[in-house]
Amino acid sequence: GEDVEQSLFLSVREGDSSVINCTYTDSSSTYLYWYKQEPGAGLQLLTYIFSNMDMKQDQRLTVLLNKKDKHLSLRIADTQTGDSAIYFCAESGTGGYNKLIFGAGTRLAVHP
Amino acid sequence: DAGVIQSPRHEVTEMGQEVTLRCKPISGHDYLFWYRQTMMRGLELLIYFNNNVPIDDSGMPEDRFSAKMPNASFSTLKIQPSEPRDSAVYFCASSLGDRGYTFGSGTRLTVV
After folding, report:
1. Which residue is closest to A88 within chain B, CA to CA?
2. Residue B100 pLDDT
3. A81 to chain B nearest CA, in Å?
4. β-strand B53-56 against B65-71: which pairing, if any?
5. Who wins on pLDDT, B100 or B38?
6. Of B11, B18, B41, which is closest to residue B107 (Cα–Cα)?
7. pLDDT (mean) for B85-108
8. By CA distance, what is A29's nearest residue in B?
């Protein structure tokens, strides 16, 4: 079945790079997404990558996709305290191309 | 656009009472989703609509839950009767095709 897995916690020092990893099971996913959730708020779409791409860069964010290993990562350069949040990986499952399956989320803590 | 609007932001109700959560999607979006978020189960897709028609309600926990979308600008999620285990944050999201979801700020439901 469809499943998305992420590590639950990541702690980094301010100014360092953060790398959040995700594995998924559905090789037919058209898009893969990264969402950010701040306390008390809904999920905010950060970026997404089309399945025929290997990499996408958007300012401090870099998304890498290894389709063979079904591995997705999000790199945040120069991590700031404002980046502290929960980050969700999502794939568009086979149940309908627009039906997203979310991982459990990775809580990123940025410390001075 | 004001984004996806959910009401109320917080709801506290007694066990056995009926609860109605409301959602106004972004104008022009053709998909609407209802999710539930808890610490134990993460984000669960309850039901989604395409052009006001329910497409997949397999995530609805039981018959106590029902959802409607009478028109393109309004949807409701109803729980009757409510139980303490229904306590969670309920999110509504909308999208246009496969361009990623826009989430509302959520309704925090507490059933006592």
Report:
1. B43
2. 77
3. 22
4. unpaired
5. B38
6. B11
7. 91
8. B98
C-alpha span between B88 and B39 (Å, rounded): 9
Residues 30-89 of A with CB under 8 A from B: 30-31, 33, 35, 40-45, 48, 88
CB-defined contacts A:B, below 8 A: 51
Residue B73, pLDDT above cutoff 70: yes
Q: B81: cis peptide before it, omega within 30°?
A: yes
pLDDT tens digits, one per residue of B41-70: 889 999 999 999 999 899 998 899 999 999
pLDDT of residue B32: 95
In degrees and rounded to multiples of 5, residue B33 shows phi and psi of -125, 145
- Answer yes or no: are the C-beta atoms of B6 and B104 closer than 8 Å: yes
Q: What is the DSSP string of A4-60?
A: EEE-SEEEEETTS-EEEEEEE--TT-SEEEEEEE-TTS-EEEEEEEETT-SEEEETT
